[in-house]
Amino acid sequence: MTNTTNLNSTPTTTHTREPILKATNLVKTFGKVVGLDGVSLELFPGEVLAIIGDNGAGKSTLIKCLTGAEIPDEGRIELDGKPVHFKRPQDARSAGIETVYQNLAVSPALDVAANLFLGREERRKGILGSVFRVVDTKGMRKKAKAELLELGISTLQDVTVPVENLSGGQRQAVAVARAAAFGSKVVVLDEPTAALGVRESKQVLELVKNLRDKGIPVILISHNMPHVFEVADRIHIQRLGKCAATITPQSHSMTDAVAIMTGAQTA
């Protein structure tokens, strides 16, 4: 089958837009183990790019290199057309790349609003904030509610509820909302529907679509092929540390994707 590119069902836009995130010939080794072997990737504005592959294919290493958790041995990473050199995750976050990992990194004892602003707490205006460092709880709750509303998250009406009282899907929504609120350029989601039920998974997938509709590009790492084919515009397939192919749900079937992933078929 032909390897084509599709962004929101308009393939031609890929050729007229510059990628917001671009990786070229990334190489990462761990002793004699090759994690990445010359991997290239492009992420365009307003698209969902899924990354799939078997265990050990290099998915996690690729994401870690793109988000500052690992430093590639070779290759180039560009953000908005400019080269970047992330030495730690905070560097990527400061540049506008937010990552939601499987463990979510939420604080169960804090409420929804406090989790959205975790590590970025806003202070009260004037002397209370500058000298006494009083947190602007009311202001953060107001902004948190507005952010959730904008993302179309209707299952979290009360931002004062402790996260420990939320379901798995709702906790995922909090983590994704935090990434969307501060990830001004790119949001990376690592297995966002893992261990979720059918209803909660659907809510998370709708949230991914909402991010895309807002123009925020999303990198989605997932083992769930139906979920990938439901929301992804393009699918980057990793195999043995390399990019085996980049396909679309329109150009290839799930069976094709699995065959390419296992080496039984080429794109």
From TrEMBL:
Tagged with keyword Cytoplasm: no
SMART domains in UniProt: AAA
This protein's record includes keyword Plastid: no
PANTHER family: CARBOHYDRATE TRANSPORT ATP-BINDING PROTEIN MG119-RELATED, SUGAR ABC TRANSPORTER ATP-BINDING PROTEIN
PROSITE patterns, alphabetized: ABC_TRANSPORTER_1 (PS00211), ABC_TRANSPORTER_2 (PS50893)
Provenance organism: Arthrobacter vasquezii
Single annotated GO MF: ATP binding
UniProt keyword annotations, A-Z: ATP-binding, Nucleotide-binding
Protein name: ATP-binding cassette domain-containing protein
InterPro entries found in the cross-reference section: AAA+_ATPase, ABC_carbohydrate_import_ATPase, ABC_transporter-like_ATP-bd, ABC_transporter-like_CS, P-loop_NTPase
Domain ABC transporter: 21-265
CDD domains, sorted: ABC_Carb_Monos_I
